[in-house]
Specification:
The chain has seven helices and four strands; from the N terminus they run αααααββααββ. It has 166 residues and is α+β, with helices and mostly antiparallel strands. The strands form two sheets. A two-stranded antiparallel sheet has the order 1-2. Strands 3-4 form a two-stranded antiparallel sheet. Strand 1 and strand 2 form a beta hairpin. The longest helix is centred in the middle third of the chain and has 13 residues. The radius of gyration is 20 Å and the shape is globular.
Length: 166
């Protein structure tokens, strides 16, 4: 199988586009991050994020439909609804941490951002990395795609681009 055919075969079954369609929009990422930080009510999301009510309502509905957030009545105030991360939503923590680390490394964001730390030790969290089944840290050159039949897809190793000085 040639490079193009191997790529097309893996692309058709790749879950990344579906995942990005669910969580890849700016407001959706901010709502997920806010949920991870403890925001629970519509009004909290709206005032903290500065998001329009109709957009917030739409994004919350999508996250509930995707099983990332659960909607339940507030036991303290029956007029309010609580939005909380589901198990599926909490599983996004490493994704969000990795994305944040990548963004900071790329110089994105604004100065003065808070540091993400371990609650117990109050020390910064470790870098999110990819590990093998036996715990070895892997780099991009260590990765290979294996097809459903167990055969290695013949893809070239990704070259590292060189930074060009501006």
């Amino acid at each position: 199988m040639g490079l193009v055919q191997a790529f097309q075969a893996t692309s058709d079954a790749c879950p990344i586009p579906e995942a990005v369609a669910i969580i890849g929009e700016r407001w959706t990422c901010l709502i997920i991050r806010a949920s991870m930080l403890g925001l629970r009510h519509f009004e909290e999301f709206q005032s903290c994020l500065g998001i329009a009510r109709n957009i917030l309502s739409d994004r919350l509905g999508r996250l509930v439909s995707a099983g990332i957030l659960a909607r339940s009545p507030d036991p303290e105030d029956g007029r309010k609804v609580i939005y909380g991360l589901t198990e599926r939503g909490a599983a996004l923590v490493p994704v969000m941490v990795a994305l944040r680390q990548w963004a900071l490394d790329a110089g994105l964001g604004k100065p003065g951002h808070p540091e993400l730390a371990d609650r117990r030790d109050r020390k910064p969290v470790a870098r999110v990395t990819v590990h093998s089944h036996d715990g070895r840290q892997l780099d991009i050159e260590d990765l290979v795609w294996i097809g459903p039949d167990g055969a290695e897809l013949q893809m070239p190793s990704p070259p590292r681009a060189r930074q060009v000085a501006a």
